[in-house]
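Q:
Got a chain?
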Amino acid sequence: MTRLPAPDPDTLPADVRRFLAVVPPSGMVRMASHAVATVQPFLQLGLLQFEVLALPDRYRELATLTVAACTECEFTAGQHVPMSAQAGITDELRAAIARKDFDNPGLDARDQVIIQFASELVARPRVGDELFGRARAFLTDRELVELIQVCAFYLAFNRIATTLDVPAEDDA
């Protein structure tokens, strides 16, 4: 049970109703639609994560799963199983991330940097210089900024899910 009721669609502004009519309905969409001024750009930013990033899909999914683990968001972790599998992330790697085993020596070196970077970004206001340097060694400037944006988007998205108790089964 969510902590807020879904807004009455009839009370939403006409432009928001038009936008929501073309978005697949879900618990997260309903909760986000409480913020009538930002629901459209917020959800569009989420969609852009899958359409226009230079950041490789694998790194996007590693970051997303890591932010989900760090924010204890089962909703996002569950939603990203199929997408992360398509990006080549194994069940074992997903399990390691869920356990917050971010220093696992069995991790690919670049995967480990992405996972640690995402973890630090959630935990601290600034990623340390050594880790930042390791990320810069293989990410372009654009990819590095996109990595930060992916983490920031999912931090906000996950906090809506966890704070408002949005059940994952609403979006299965």
